[in-house]
């Protein structure tokens, strides 16, 4: 007869817990069952939903020894363990059904974090559950549920490494911005004898630098910074290019308390080099970080304005991210443990390749260097429309007058109206057209600069001498839309895609007879930018319109199509007249400039006072077409033409 023994008692971990699992399953929106038939999956799903929401009240929780854990404590520990990732809880996905061995169930869960920059970090973890005598499945909580390498008190932390910022390249593929020598000007507090006088002397010296620093050096907070700094500290004031520093070195070098450090930082060839077009690269500002907290942190370099701002994400690349484990040290301060859980290597930025030519840009910047008024020079290569230079004179650092100005073109627009008249057969080179002292249309009187008159002269003379009254008289021959049609054939008003903002013009059309007369010589409602006029001038020189090009990589997606071929006989006559502007007309100051220069001067009234005028010159030499604009420049012969001469003389031989 077999012997029988009493069945030994097997304690169940879950029986030591008196917690009840809530009936609400947050993740799936169904009830958590209270019977063993429901299986552990419902408790798992409720736990995952509570992990994400931070509310674990509906979940039974025990430690590995079976002791009951308050749900609020576990929720708090999950948040603490998540550390810098706590604000973006992971996506949690149960993989398949739990595996049950006696009273213990094990399920695999995918944990997927979304890190800054939409970086995905995913891994699998095991969640264990214990089945109690009350038919409830309770989650066995321990820090390694979050990650296998985490222990109590640990924190997840992010380490961020910036990628190498790419350059903006010139037309030869060379970086426009490279490390260049600078002098960091600073103050050592214990060397200062008279702080108020030092600030005054530094301010005067900085304001004496030419061309003027834009923006200027703000010294308003320097006294406070010097006062609060350590006695032997170097309180930096400004970093100056070597050439700017040399200008004022005699004035600041021996000032008590000043200190100087030689360094190199990434800079364009000169301080004014295409500055509005290129923009700047600066340490991240508070508003950058506030607007894009997921993109920038303190210490990042950020593009502001121009191409650097527009293409900042491309140029800056992607930062490297490393998830590390931190642990409290003595005093409670968190310190890295050296454990890395995830790494994404920094991604270098992608360069921008432009059509800018360093020599031509330097010539354009140099031509404006002595100009005190807002002004611009734009230069294009005629053969392919490449933008070789975009220079801006004094004004806010980010103001790209060269591309964005919306101003009347004045008599430079006689180039456009003459093309329209030639196309219609309304004029010929030598056909006589009366140049009167005044000409009245619908009660509005038009006159010439300095009230000159020529009488009945060949049309080519009217053009070369820039006779307004002759053009006002010819306006009816263009018809209501003839001027606009001629302008559009030269690319004005077009939908250009340069990869940056640009105003392509707005040509007067229709309107009263007086408006048509004014529009014929660039007044009325017609508005242009220097870039638009440079493009139109290049079209005349080339024989058809070709949209100006600035970026070759990335190439613009939708450049304007090339225009139709202009009438050869019309452009031949127009070119002849534009050459005579230089040889015998209003641009004769350029006749001794080397090479054959073609052009047209222009003054443009910008309000109701005839004495208030902008100044223009447009033209070309060889393969370079250009436009010069001077706001409130008065007579073009006194402002725009001299700038054109400086530009042309500085151009390298073609």
UniProtKB/TrEMBL annotation:
Signal peptide: 1-27
Gene Ontology BP terms: cell division
Statement: the UniProt record of this protein carries the keyword Nuclease: no
Residue ranges annotated for the Penicillin-binding protein dimerisation domain, each copy included: 163-331
Residues in Penicillin-binding protein transpeptidase domain copies: 376-648
Keyword ATP-binding applies: no
Pfam families per the UniProt record, alphabetical: MecA_N (PF05223), PBP_dimer (PF03717), Transpeptidase (PF00905)
NTF2-like N-terminal transpeptidase domain span: 40-154
Record localization: Membrane
PROSITE patterns documented for this protein: PROKAR_LIPOPROTEIN (PS51257)
Source superkingdom: Bacteria
Keywords from the named record: Cell cycle, Cell division, Membrane, Signal
PANTHER family in the record: PENICILLIN-BINDING PROTEIN 4B, PEPTIDOGLYCAN D,D-TRANSPEPTIDASE
Homology family: Belongs to the transpeptidase family.
Record's protein name: Cell division protein FtsI/penicillin-binding protein 2
């Amino acid at each position: 007869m077999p012997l029988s023994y009493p069945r030994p008692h097997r304690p169940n971990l879950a029986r030591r817990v008196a917690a009840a699992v809530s009936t609400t399953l947050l993740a799936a929106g169904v009830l958590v069952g209270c019977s063993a038939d429901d299986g552990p999956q419902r408790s798992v799903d409720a736990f995952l939903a509570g992990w994400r929401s931070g509310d674990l009240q509906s979940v039974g929780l025990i430690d590995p020894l079976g002791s009951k854990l308050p749900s609020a404590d576990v929720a708090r520990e999950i948040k603490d363990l998540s550390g810098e990732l706590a604000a973006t809880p992971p996506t949690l996905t149960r993989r398949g059904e739990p595996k049950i061995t006696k009273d213990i169930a094990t399920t695999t869960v995918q944990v997927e974090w979304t890190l800054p920059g939409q970086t995905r970090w995913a891994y699998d973890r095991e969640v264990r559950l214990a089945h109690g005598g009350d038919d409830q499945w309770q989650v066995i909580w321990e820090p390694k549920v979050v990650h296998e390498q985490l222990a109590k008190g640990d924190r997840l932390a992010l380490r961020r490494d910036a990628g190498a910022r790419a350059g903006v390249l010139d037309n030869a593929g060379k970086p426009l911005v490279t490390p260049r020598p600078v002098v960091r000007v600073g103050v050592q507090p214990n060397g200062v004898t008279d702080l108020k006088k030092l600030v005054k002397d530094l301010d005067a010296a900085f304001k004496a630098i030419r061309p003027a620093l834009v923006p200027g050096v703000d010294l308003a907070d320097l006294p406070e910074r010097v006062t609060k700094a350590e006695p032997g500290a170097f309180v930096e004031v400004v970093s100056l290019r070597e050439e700017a520093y040399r200008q004022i070195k005699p004035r600041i070098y021996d000032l008590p308390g000043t200190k100087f450090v030689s360094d190199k930082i990434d800079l364009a060839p000169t301080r004014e080099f295409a500055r509005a077009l290129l923009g700047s690269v600066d340490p991240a500002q508070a508003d950058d970080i506030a607007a894009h907290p997921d993109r920038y942190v303190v210490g990042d370099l950020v593009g502001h304005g121009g191409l650097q701002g527009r293409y900042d994400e491309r140029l800056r690349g992607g930062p490297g991210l490393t998830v590390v484990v931190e642990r409290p040290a003595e005093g409670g301060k968190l310190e890295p443990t050296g454990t890395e859980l995830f790494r994404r290597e920094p991604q270098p930025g992608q360069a921008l390749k432009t059509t800018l030519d360093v020599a031509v840009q330097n010539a354009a910047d140099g031509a404006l260097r002595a100009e005190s008024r807002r002004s611009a020079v734009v230069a294009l290569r005629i053969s392919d429309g490449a933008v070789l230079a975009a220079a801006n004179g004094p004004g806010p650092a980010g103001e790209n007058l060269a591309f964005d100005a919306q101003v009347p073109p004045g008599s430079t627009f006689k180039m456009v109206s003459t093309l329209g008249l030639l196309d219609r057969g309304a004029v010929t080179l030598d056909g006589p057209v009366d140049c009167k002292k005044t000409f009245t249309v619908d009660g509005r009187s038009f006159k010439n600069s300095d009230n000159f008159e020529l009488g009945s002269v060949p049309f080519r003379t009217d053009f070369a001498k820039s006779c307004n009254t002759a053009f006002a008289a010819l306006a009816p021959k263009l018809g209501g839309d003839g001027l606009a049609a001629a302008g559009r054939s030269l690319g004005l008003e077009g939908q250009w895609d340069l990869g940056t903002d640009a105003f392509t013009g707005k040509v007067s059309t229709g309107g009263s007879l007086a408006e048509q007369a004014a529009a014929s010589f660039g007044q009325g409602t017609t508005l242009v930018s220097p870039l638009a006029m440079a493009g139109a001038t290049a079209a005349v020189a080339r024989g058809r319109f070709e949209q100006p090009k600035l970026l070759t990589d990335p190439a613009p997606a939708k450049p304007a199509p090339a225009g139709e071929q202009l009438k050869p006989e019309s452009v031949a006559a127009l070119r002849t007249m534009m050459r005579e502007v230089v040889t015998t007309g209003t641009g004769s100051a350029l006749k001794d400039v080397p090479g054959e220069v073609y052009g047209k001067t222009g003054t443009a009234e910008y309000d109701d006072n005839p004495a208030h005028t902008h100044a223009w010159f447009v033209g070309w030499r060889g393969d370079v077409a250009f436009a010069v604009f001077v706001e409130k420049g008065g007579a073009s012969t006194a402002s725009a033409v001299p700038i054109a001469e400086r530009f042309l003389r500085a151009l390298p031989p073609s």
